[in-house]
Design goal:
elongated, DUF1236, 3 helices, 4 strands, DUF1236 domain-containing protein, signal, 2 domains, alpha+beta
Length: 132
C-alpha cells in the first residue's frame, strides 16, 4: 500500500516539476522530474520522474528568438480579443481568439489576447510563451 502511495506521489510531483520546466527543454524536464522522483520515491521514483519530466519537457518547445522578435515587432492588431480566462502556458486559446501564422516559421503562430502577445502552436492552439 505504501509503495502505491509513494508511486502516485512521485508521479504527481514529477509531472508538476516537469510542467514547471516545460519552457526550458527535454533535458531540464527529465532532470527536474528525476530529482523530484528521487526525493519522494527513491531510485524507482527517479526513473518514473525522469521519464515523465522528459515527456512534459518535449511537449512544448520554446520558440527561437527569431520568432519572438517577429511577434514583438508586429503592430498591435485592431481585432485583439479580451477573454475572461487567464492565458496560461500549455493551455489552448479559446476559439474566439484569432491566431496569426508566422510566415518564416509555420511551426509557430501568435495572437494578441488581453492586450498580451502570445506565441502558440497553430494546430493545437496551445500557448507556448506569453510575451510582456
Amino acid at each position: 500500500m505504501k509503495t502505491k502511495v509513494f508511486g502516485v506521489a512521485a508521479l504527481s510531483l514529477a509531472l508538476a516539476s516537469g510542467y514547471a520546466f516545460a519552457q526550458s527543454s527535454t533535458v531540464n524536464g527529465a532532470a527536474g522530474g528525476a530529482v523530484t522522483g528521487a526525493i519522494v520515491g527513491g531510485p524507482v521514483g527517479a526513473a518514473v520522474g525522469g521519464v515523465a519530466g522528459a515527456i512534459v519537457g518535449t511537449a512544448i518547445d520554446p520558440p527561437p528568438q527569431k520568432v519572438v522578435t517577429y511577434v514583438q515587432e508586429q503592430p498591435m492588431p485592431e481585432d485583439s480579443v479580451v477573454v475572461r480566462e487567464k492565458v496560461v502556458v500549455g493551455q489552448p486559446l479559446p476559439e474566439t481568439v484569432r491566431v496569426r501564422t508566422i510566415p518564416e516559421n509555420p511551426k509557430y503562430a501568435y495572437a494578441v489576447v488581453n492586450h498580451e502577445r502570445v506565441i502558440v502552436e497553430p494546430s493545437s492552439r496551445k500557448v507556448i510563451r506569453v510575451l510582456n
